[in-house]
Amino acid sequence: MTEANKAASVAKPIPTITPDMVQFFDGARRGQLMVQKCEGCGELRFPPHEICTRCLGTRAAWVAVSGRGEVYSFNIMHQVYHPGFAAEVPYAVVVVKLEEGVKFVSNLVGVKPADIKCGMPVEVTFEKLNDQVMLPKFRPLTKS
Amino acid sequence: MDLRAKCAIAGLGQTRMGKNYDHHNGMGFAIQAIQLALEDAGLKREDLDGLLVNPGITWSDNAMASFSLQQAMGLRDLRLSATMGLGGATAGAMIMHAAQSIACGMANTVACVFSDAPLKPPAPKDAKSAGGGSAAAYGFARGLNAAYGQFGVNAHYAFVARRHMDMYGTTQDQLGAIAVEQRKWANRNSEAQFHDEPMTLEDYHHSRWVAEPFHLYDCCLVSNGGCAVIVTSAERAKNLKKPPVYLLGMGQGHPGGDPMDTLLSGAPIAKETAFKMADVKLSDIQFAQLYDCYTFTVLVTLEDYGFCKKGEGGPFVADGKTGPGGSIPVNTGGGQLSSFYMWGMTPISEAVIQIRGEGGPRQLPKHELGLISGNGGILSTHSSLVVASHP
Question: Which band of pLDDT confidence, cut at 50, 70 and 90, is reported for residue B129?
Fold first, then answer.
């Protein structure tokens, strides 16, 4: 989006940092993608739950994951459901399956919707929304 | 207890569908639909002793909707009452609950109703107050989905459809074929919202995108209205006004987990129970009324009942076999894509019409045994009914 568009448009929704998401956003500010890990069975999960769906354990910690994965599925949104997206339609929403197996709904940056393919390797990048909220997004994985 | 043909649908009531503003809320449409169903069956309000309600999204009193409705229409001394919520599988599940209750002597005559009077989703009127704040009003998980622009069920179903296309090579033309065939049925149904509008595959491709891979015509309609059925014992149904629609088999399937991984509905589980109870095979089924929140849902449901192999739903539907004159007629009133959207009541209503032979220009020549599916969430809940003109 150009600066002119930015000024003219309404801001997108900014996620509220609810108590169960504090550590997720703490991690994001450090440049780390965080998921929950069940302390009972080790299962990784996102978004956070109070109880593990695998072992029903109630204790969980937050751990950083690689931030690498691949596009598992995606859609291309053509309608404006919130004015913050009016300047961007059509835009894509992707499901990234992380190397660790957890799925993460997000957006891709640096790729046109028409060029998105399932299986495309991607890595996390963070978009600063304000001093508190760094929003994880993904970009095509560049080989290091 | 064997429930095969113990109970029957004895009455069907449906209001005018679509842009119907006769009532401003779901309650009004529910009362009207039940009155119509009672009249259809030749029964009076006093004959009801059970009331099961699936409130649509605009009902304000969801938690005790069946009690609210009982009070609103002055029903006394009920023996069965429940508000049920399994999304699009609810209608089938209500009929099962009614049949179980009747068969074991807990109730005699049960009304099952869905109604809705959808309002436009609240759009932010004041741009200044719309952005930047809490995203809770717009999305699901902690506002993260909203931050990414992931709004509504269309967007989530699109993920699953895209996986199917990627895994099995399902094409846009194949999804379109489902929409086109159902429109042909709707053009033969005077109650259908799209009765007067034919549609070609080209029209389908030209309809606006909602959430790719879904065009507008991949998505169900939005309808105001109500639809009710009266369930009673097979013995009692025989003596009522209309021919009984026998409930031969009933089953549910709720797979859990992530449908993006499995690309499966609950149909395989529900079918097992329902077909065993009915003592039928798939080849016995003469028509199918399949829950169609999207074209894609029909495709998956056809696969999951075994009309074709998993992954082959696309080629299966591409040559018109679900349409008029086809080998397995599907959604013969136009379905929710082209007739009206009463959640799981839409396929039930059409099955009742077909079994009775009341389909007029769309009446099937073979209509003795039919399959009805209901599907809720994102391939999350499933109900299966096998219905027949004879026990």
Answer: very low
**β-pair type (A91-98, A134-140):** unpaired
Measured between beta carbons, the chain A residues lying within 8 angstroms of B139 are: 13
Asked whether B54 and B90 are in contact (CB, 8 A), the reply is: yes
Provide the token pair at B231: 């369930």
Provide the token pair at B123. 């759009």
ipTM of the complex: 0.92
CB neighbours of B149 closer than 8 A, spacing ≥ 6?
A12, A77, A81, A82, A85, A88, A91, A93, A107
| Residue that has been written with the tokens 């192999």 in this structure | B309
**φ, ψ (nearest 5 deg) of residue B10:** -110, -15
Among candidate residues B329, B390, B339, B334, the one with its CA nearest the CA of residue B365: B329
* Inter-chain CB proximity B133 and A74 less than 8 Å: no
**Chain B residues with beta carbon closer than 8 angstroms to that of A118:** 162-163, 166
pLDDT, tens digit (0-9, with 9 covering 90-100), for B327-348: 999 999 999 999 999 999 999 9
> A122 with A96: CB under 8 angstroms?
yes
CB B174 within 8 A of CB B215: no
Average pLDDT of B136-150?
68
Q: Which of A9, A15, A95 sits opposite B144 (nearest CB)?
A: A15
Chain A, chain B: beta-carbon pairs less than 8 Å apart: 125
Comparing alpha-carbon positions, the chain B residue that sits nearest to A17 is: B142
Q: Is A101 on the interface with B (CB under 8 A)?
A: no
Name the 3-class secondary structure at A86: coil
Scanning the structure block, which residue is given the tokens 């989703």?
A: B121
Cβ of A20 within 8 Å of Cβ of B142? The answer is yes
| Inter-chain CB proximity A75 and B139 less than 8 Å | no
Distance, CA of B85 to CA of B53 (rounded, Å): 9
The residues of B annotated with a catalytic role in the active site are 291, 341
Other Cβ atoms closer than 10 A to B196:
9
Task: Give the model's pLDDT for residue B2.
Answer: 87
Reduced to 3 states, what is the DSSP secondary structure of residue B70? helix
Q: Please give the domain boundaries of chain B with CATH numbers for all domains.
A: 7-119+222-238 (3.40.47.10)
**Chain segment B20-54, per-residue pLDDT in tens:** 888 888 999 999 999 999 999 999 999 999 999 99
CB-CB under 8 Å, B210 with A93? no
